[in-house]
Amino acid sequence: MKYNILNDFRRYLNNKYNKNTADTYYFAVDKILKNHQFGDLSEVNFGSLGIDKIKGNKNEFSAIKNGLKNLNKFSSDFKIPKDDFFKEISKKKRNFIKSKGKEINLDKTRRKINATKNDKYKLAFRLAMVSGLRVSELSQLSKKDLKIDSDANKIDVFIERGKGGKKGNVLSMEDPYLCQKLSGYIEKLNNGDKIFPAKQSLKNKAKSLGIEMHDLRRIFAITYRKNLMNEGVGILQANEATQNALRHTRFSTTKRYLFNKKLRFKR
Q1: What are 233-254's pLDDT values in tens digits?
Q2: Is 262 helix (H, G, I), strand (E, B) or coil?
Q3: Phi, psi (deg, nearest 5) at residue 83
Q4: Which residues pair with 171 in a beta bridge?
């Protein structure tokens, strides 16, 4: 039945991606199939889905495209056209409406975070600023994922399931206060306990402080590169190191963090 198939598909996505990505792909597919009844995916005619008539921007279409491609990998009974079909539709989609730009004030952001009374949020925000972790990654961290080096004042973070399902280690920049406080905080936790609040709670708390969670990742990128160059590292090497620290596949993505003309960074 349709309900059971979609439930199995959701479990497939959850095993492959982090929760945020899995939910994005699942709900995109669920919406497309909303008015279609079937007992088997072989009964779904791709042409009847009206993919070429769906409204939305490039990001929304990308979620639909990737969701349907994953549905095809989940079950080869669901047939999809070749990539050229999706590329042609994507060309006609618009990006998000461009904003007039924004300003990130590093000192003000730090003051707001340091004035936060709840340690769960304060420590999460500080860790994001010195590691570049995404909010979805922060919310999934447990005690066993952290190795705190109090001598070097750095934290080694293991990401079990990052963006795109990737795993790996992230080494933070120095923060003596964070190392001391976080070390004492996680001592009370069991290895499997989540350290920080859920993703949406982190975003809501940041918003109440006038902060966007992703700005903390931007702060990390700009600060990390600047520190390297202050130490005498060349521009190309600093750029490459920052790309690796952000775990970007392409430097064109990293450039949007470092050289966005509409993003003003003040210290």
Answers
A1: 999 999 999 999 999 999 999 9
A2: coil
A3: -60, -30
A4: 156
